Amino acid sequence: MHWRRWTVILSIAAGIVAAIVYALRPQPVPIEMAEVVRGPLTVTVEEEGKTRVKERYVIYAPVTGYNRRLDFDAGDPVKQGQVVATIEPSRPVPLDMRSLAEGRAAVAVAGAQVQAAEQRIRAATANAEYWSAELKRVNDLVRTGDIARSRLEQTVSEQQRAAAALAEAQHAMEAAQSELRRARAAVTEFTGTPQATGIVEVRAPVAGRVLKLLRESAGAISVGEPLLEIGNARAIEVEIEVLSPDAVRIKPGTSVVFTRWGGDGSLEGVVQRIEPSGFTKISALGVEEQRVPVIAILTSPETVWSGLGAGYRVEASFILWQGQDVLQVPTSSLFRYGDGWAVFVVDGGSARRRLVELGHRSGLRTEITSGLQPGERVIAYPDETIEDGTPVEPRA
User: Fold this and answer.
1) DSSP letter assigned to residue 64
2) CA–CA dist 165, 170 (Å, integer)
3) Which residues have a Cβ under 8 Å from the Cβ of 270 and sit 6 or more positions away?
4) pLDDT attached to residue 328
């Protein structure tokens, strides 16, 4: 009985110890694994872009005047040299009661000045006729010797003075008549009939289509005011604003793939130029970014993207590098270790840290140049709970 009692006690103690050891042993960390594979890898830069017309012509008013209503709609075709706008001379401003009264008084004053000028002309004409006749009589008397020659010289002087006074009166008459016409024009009411002279016709510099009407309605217009935009709606390009570090990596001739443009599939294009200067733009998170406009042209057939127009949104992917047989892992599996990079390889239920060397990087995949072999499995999303030798198990 004594021996059996100790056997039972020792068995219970051993069970308790085993339960404590089992409860205190390290628990495997649930992980998600990814396989090291070989396959195609493409390094891209992705940004949003907007289509625009290559050659856009904004037509401005060449003079100040009254613009007639434009007889166009957006999308209408125009020929080179076709009249697209007609500008008449500026129309008079309507007068208020005071201005009208002042204008009529000015007409009366000008009329009186014309009448006074007419009287001065009559007086000057009579005086000139008198001295002309007197000069003839004096001239005859001088030839017969009845009067001195000095009298002739005096009469000639008076006749010239009378002729000059007549000319002055005639010029004063012309000035008074001009002032009368000006005063009458100031109070003449506008009938709404376009003037036959002074009309300016604005013609299209090139053939194309109307892209936008900037001033459709009739009304007064100032010189330099935009009227409409024309251009070839089928000759479009894409403007993409990229971060300045990405713009350095993009070169003219770089291939571009356009997606989410509204049609089926994707469109192909090529970079035409990178603008030499950038600008500051505030991102949606409120961060200042230096961006550079990159201009690309479409190389896909026009029949594929015929539905695109100016100002349409697209998503552009610049292809910086491509490889067909590249050893790669998810970028999320990489972490910094010392001065290099490392991954956790799953080996027999434990995580083993391994240093790796990186090659090209895409957004979600990264090339591995050394440190891993195809078929090995790595932890896709390592965190601070995982160390070298930590037990791991696949997440359910």
Assistant:
1) S
2) 9
3) 253, 254, 255, 256, 296, 297, 299
4) 94
Report d(CA 26, CA 29) in Å as an integer: 9
- Which tens digits make up the pLDDT trace of 326-340? 999 999 999 999 899
Mean pLDDT of 235-254: 93
Evaluate if residue 82 carries a pLDDT over 80.
yes
**Chain mean position to CA 266:** 26
Q: What is the spatial distance between Cα 232 and Cα 236, in angstroms, rounded to a whole number?
A: 8
Q: Is 389 helix (H, G, I), strand (E, B) or coil?
A: coil
Report the distance separating Cα 93 and Cα 96, nearest Å.
Answer: 10
pTM of the model as a whole? 0.60
Give the number of other Cβ atoms within 10 Å of residue 317's Cβ: 17
User: Could you give the CA distance from residue 109 to residue 99 in angstroms, rounded to a whole number?
Assistant: 15
Q: Which amino acid is present at 269?
A: G
Burial grade of 212 (CB within 10 A; 0-12, 13-18, 19 or more): middle
Residue 31: exposure state from Cβ atoms within 10 A (0-12, 13-18, ≥19): buried
Tell me the percentage of the chain whose pLDDT exceeds 90: 37
Element (H, E) at 129: helix 97-144
Tell me the HSE value of 221 on the side-chain side, using a 13 A CA sphere. Answer: 27
The H-or-E segment that residue 11 falls in is helix 2-24
Query: Pairing relation of β-strands 226-231 and 56-60?
Result: antiparallel
